[in-house]
Amino acid sequence: MRGDQIYVHRELLNLQGIYEHHGSDCGDGSVIHYRKPSETIEQTSIETFARGNPVYIRKYEAGFYFIADVVVSRAHSRLGEQRYNLLFNNCEHFATWCKTGFSDSLQIRDFIPFVTQLDTSKLYEPLKEALQDSDPNNSQQLLKEALADIKLIWDDLQPRYKTALQEADSWDRVAIAAIKQNREDLAREAIKRKLTFKKQAGELQEQLQQLTNMTETLIRNSQQL
Which residues contact 191 (CB under 8 A, 6 or more apart)? Predict the structure, then answer.
């Protein structure tokens, strides 16, 4: 039905097992989803989405989730996006965000738990050890490679940090609107979402600060070579 988060089971290439491919049902025979292999958010027929597989509905028995029109509107707002990332922005992240406001993937949390324990401060230690045993030319190359690696991580964390701040602000407005309508139940749920995103933003900010400190250290080292 319109606004449902739907999914199908697909085979996982080169591995034994299956994975779930998620999308948002538009209610008119079409689905908005991160399409493979283009890795673009597209609106396709449900037949294209399903590829002949049974279609299931992700159930949300309790708690807050958006009404159908809002879900479809959120899905439409990201049509054409090409920022697919298996760990941080896959098809399930997208469909769950459309439905609940949270960018989440149960598959990733179940199978790759270390993703939630990223500690960027540990990235510098292997580099420091390598520099101690390297000649100047090799050290310069290692520093350049380290700075490039830091930039890749920064480019992933920074948009997520900004999104978390924006989501916290959005849920704050939702809470205020709910209170004005005497909907304390929705206000409580919205405040919970706001606090969750504020915590997420704080954690991401700490990781960004770690990357900043590492960059400063690397630049100082490069000036000494």
Answer: 171, 175
CB 190 within 8 Å of CB 174: yes
Overall pTM surpassing 0.70 (yes/no): no
Sign of CA dihedral 153, 86, 203, 126: negative
CA dihedral sign, ordered 204, 208, 214, 218:
positive
* End-to-end C-alpha distance for the chain, whole angstroms: 64
What burial letters (b/e) apply to 115-127, b meaning 16+ CB within 10 Å?
Answer: eeebebeebbeeb
pLDDT digits (tens, 9 = 90+) for 29-58: 999 999 988 889 999 999 999 999 999 999
C-alpha distances in angstroms, 13 versus 16, 18, 19, 57? 8, 9, 10, 24
Residue 2 carries which side chain, given as an amino acid letter?
R
The model's pLDDT over 58-110, given as tens digits with 9 standing for 90+, comes to 998 766 788 899 999 999 999 999 988 776 788 998 999 999 888 777 765 55
Helix (H, G, I), strand (E, B) or coil at 33: strand
C-alpha to C-alpha distances, 137 to 130, 133, 222, 223, nearest whole angstrom: 13, 12, 11, 13
CB neighbours of 220 closer than 8 A, spacing ≥ 6?
none
Q: Residue 131 and residue 7: Cα distance in Å, rounded?
A: 49
C-alpha–C-alpha distance, residues 31 and 5, integer Å:
10
State the chain's maximal CA–CA distance in angstroms. 69
